[in-house]
Beta-glucosidase (Fervidobacterium nodosum), 438 residues
Amino acid sequence: MIKRSDFPKDFLFGTATAAYQIEGAAKEDGKGPSIWDVFSHTPGKTFNGDTGDIACDHYHRFKEDVAIMKEIGLNAYRFSISWPRVMQDGKNINQKGIDFYNRLVDELLENDIIPFITLYHWDLPYALYEKGGWLNDDIAMYFRAYATLMFNELGDRVKHWITLNEPWCSSFLGYFTGEHAPGHQNLQEALIAAHNLLRSHGHAVQAFREEVRDGKIGLTNVVTKVEPGDSRPESFFVASLVDKVINAWFHDPVIFGKYPEEAVKNYVEMGLNVPDNDFDIISTPIDFFGVNYYTRTLVVFDETNPMKFSYVSGDLPKTEMGWEIYPQGLFDMLIYLKERYRLPLYITENGMAGPDKVENGKVIDDYRIEYLEKHFEKALEAINAGVNLKGYFIWSLLDNFEWAYGYSKRFGIVYVDYNTQKRILKKSAQWLKEFLRS
Ligand SMILES: OC[C@@H]1[C@@H](O)[C@H](O)[C@@H](O)c2[nH]c(CCc3ccccc3)c[n+]21
């Protein structure tokens, strides 16, 4: 049984959330609409028509939520800023929105919790989407202005920043599969959006070096252990391509100043244009990578698909998301990232959706305790194998708005009764509290 004391003394244990998933107050105090406000209000886009209008009402209940983190004994908290809350049209400053984040940061610091801020966790101001959003090259300048504003407002107290959360999701789910806002289905657009996300990242890093000299800034990507779902050589080939798109497309340009060639070649052969400008800006040096790990991804050759592959479901035990529980993949991906990029790492998301039910006022989520324990063990194994892993943020503190799945998936270590907004610490939160004292 691993103990907290097995980890380095200065290792951070925290939880992670995102603005649109927990804040609510979707139109309060001058907040403008994001693409997720519009997408979730579009019939058919989210489970049950769920929206982030109220969510966990964190905008009003943040002190209670910080107190819960303190009670558990967490020493860090990763959250995102809602861009349209602080610049409702992507340009004009909304002081009331900024004041909320000032109050939140002060509350965290008063409780000895280190804030990690994600500047963009998918809630683009709708006004900027109407100007082309991530397809408009000018977006990088808007993002730089937004980032500069937040560095100036909070950079005196917040020393850990993440520019983007999972640009792969923003671009490929938002512009190719259409599962996420803004719901486009165009692979060429996805490549353009991906490139403008990376350009925006680079501009924000440049601004950071000017505004917050003593801070650390990084980029959070999803990583997943991609494996062939059968033994055909073609499946190994497509698995290698998918691996490069998910696990290298948004890392390589930031470190090497170029996209992975095999994947570029594949897109060019499909007749697509792969943007190739501004790699000098994109590769402005960063201080760490954030790693969002949940599961592995199995792919097989499938010529009926224009991409020549399809995802298949493996036979390991799965979470409520249908994702296999595969802790070994966390170790493998941490080693991969260390050996390819040689940067400090934070696990900025890891956790599971479970069949959480309240019985006699309690939520007995032993499955989540086992999931976390097994992934903690693999993280420790990676540290002992020489990975410079500096922290671990559990997804998530609270049950929250799970994008297209609405409120049907519960990832929190704290249960949220959405009818009453009552918070109930699950057994996993109690287990974590003990672990952090072990
Ligand atoms: O689905 C749980 C969380 C979301 O609530 C977060 O907002 C988002 O950052 C986030 N990303 C992932 C990874 C999704 C994924 C898994 C496997 C392969 C590709 C993407 C899981 N999650």
Q: What stands out?
A: The pocket of PGI is lined by residues 18, 21, 165-166, 222, 224, 292, 294-295, 297, 349, 395, 402, 411 (CB under 6 Å). The CA atoms of residues 298 and 311 lie 6 Å apart. The chain has a mean pLDDT of 98.
